[in-house]
Amino acid sequence: MKPSVYIETTIPSYLVARPSRDVVLAGHQQATRDFWSQRRHEFDLFISSYVLEESRGGEAEMAERRLQSLHGIPLLQETPESGALALRLVARLGLPQRAEADAYHIAIAAVNKMDFLLTWNCTHINNLHMLRRIEETCREAGFVPPVIGTPEELV
Questions:
Q1: How far is CA 12 from CA 32, 135, 143, in A?
Q2: Which of 34, 46, 123, 130 has its CA 20 to 30 Å from the CA of residue 91?
Q3: Angle, to 10 degrees, between the axis of helix 100-111 and the axis of helix 128-140?
Q4: Structural contact between residues 137 and 111, judged by C-beta atoms closer than 8 angstroms
Q5: Domains in the chain, ordered, with CATH?
Q6: Is 90 exceeded by the pLDDT of residue 154?
Q7: pLDDT value, residue 153
Q8: 23-45: buried (b, 16+ CB within 10 Å) or exposed (e) per residue?
């Protein structure tokens, strides 16, 4: 059985984005493309309706490219348990309203027993200040948190 990976919205965003002039962002984009072309088949990938909703935003051409990159990836369902965990995460992490979807990404991944959550969101998800609180909140609610990381860590 392959390890399971929840793909958060920043992954298809970096995958299809126009090349950045910023060296760090360009490196992240390349790491994402490398993971996608070389390693993704070693994992069972999953997304949620939050990923689809966020991917539909922005410039129409880029939204279409993001959605195309996600085609065929199974959709995890939101459950009452993931909704309750997301609300606990929002409160515990002190997330602003505009970032509440980040808590739902984490909660859906945890409730569905994902091995990994892959993201470039280093503000509200893959952030050392947040990770301990994410892990504690998931465990207090009876769920094992996914290992949160970037494509660089799975390439």
A1: 8, 25, 26
A2: 46
A3: 50
A4: no
A5: 4-154 (3.40.50.1010)
A6: no
A7: 93
A8: eeeeebbbbbbebbeeebeebeb
Instruction: Please list the alpha-helical segments (H only) found in 56-99.
Output: 60-70, 80-93
pTM of the complete model: 0.96
- 154's tokens: 């799975």
Which pLDDT score is estimated for 155? Answer: 78
Task: Choose among 142, 143, 140, 110: nearest CA to 125.
Answer: 110
* Region of residue 2 (phi > 0: left; psi between -120 and 50: alpha; otherwise: beta): beta
| CB burial of residue 90 (10 Å; 0-12, 13-18, 19+) | buried
Amino acid at position 64, single letter? E
| Rounded Cα distance, 97 and 112, in Å | 24
Contacts 24+ apart (CB under 8 A), 21-26: none
Predicted local confidence at residue 7, as pLDDT? 98
Write out pLDDT tens, residues 1-21.
999 999 999 999 999 999 999
